């Protein structure tokens, strides 16, 4: 009737051992390794692994308007016994950014990832804006690309072919024009305004969500002067 956790020399009985000999035999978990268990140890002290609950839902971000983390947890339903499998981690964290404060106000521009597409759509967009009477003066922002996911190089569709020209270390120009130009803030989302010097900012290519990366804002200009393969648009 003894089932003792860990290594416990006092957890002792007298009886038959698995090797057929008769004498002192042990009922602690260590007997499985030292081979001096009582003959009925496996039946009397069956292995019981740890059992945990399902994960909880993810929490909100730890802090709004900041790159931080969110948490999910689970709890132990049954502790392991008799050498059963130990419990897995009970908490997981994942990177997280929330763009709105708890009061419902919008966070700073530089926290919002920029959505970009090829600058080849710019002429059609300007013409459509002029026809609608909504043409407003935009601007251009120069960035230096720091990191790119490999998925950008595997964009083989005609509408994603431009992503293959993205290269780490290159300077690119991204134009902010109607309708991406917000009428209240007079900025495009993700343009990096308000960011610190050399701060890493995030971008994502429209048409292939796996094509994304980071860049650093260099400066804002009234007009773009980058080669066409390095010119893009905010969405």
From TrEMBL:
Residues 1-50 form the SMB domain. It comes from the Eukaryota. Signal peptide: none annotated. Transmembrane segments: none annotated. Pfam families: SBSPON_C (PF25031), TSP1_spondin (PF19028). Keywords: Disulfide bond, Glycoprotein, Signal. This is SBSPO protein. It comes from Asarcornis scutulata. The gene is Sbspon_1.
């Amino acid at each position: 009737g003894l089932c003792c956790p860990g290594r416990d020399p006092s957890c002792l009985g007298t009886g038959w051992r698995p090797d057929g000999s008769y004498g002192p035999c042990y009922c602690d978990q260590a007997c499985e390794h030292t081979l001096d268990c009582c003959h009925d140890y496996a039946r009397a002290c069956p292995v019981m692994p740890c059992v945990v609950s399902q994960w909880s839902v993810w929490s909100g971000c730890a802090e709004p308007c900041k790159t931080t983390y969110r948490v999910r947890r689970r709890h132990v339903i049954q502790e392991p016994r008799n050498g059963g499998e130990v419990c897995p981690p009970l908490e997981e964290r994942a990177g997280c950014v929330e763009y709105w404060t708890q009061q419902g106000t919008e966070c700073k521009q530089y926290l919002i990832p920029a959505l970009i597409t090829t600058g080849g759509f710019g002429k059609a967009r300007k013409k459509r804006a002029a026809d609608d009477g909504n043409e407003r003066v935009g601007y251009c922002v120069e960035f230096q690309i720091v990191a790119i996911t490999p998925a950008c190089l595997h964009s083989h569709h005609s509408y994603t072919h431009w992503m293959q020209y993205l290269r780490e270390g290159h300077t690119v120009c991204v134009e902010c024009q109607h309708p991406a130009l917000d009428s209240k803030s007079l900025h495009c989302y993700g343009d990096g305004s308000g960011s610190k010097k050399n701060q890493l900012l995030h971008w994502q290519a429209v048409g292939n969500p796996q094509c994304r990366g980071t860049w650093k804002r260099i400066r804002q200009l009234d007009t773009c002067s980058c080669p066409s393969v390095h010119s893009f648009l905010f969405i």
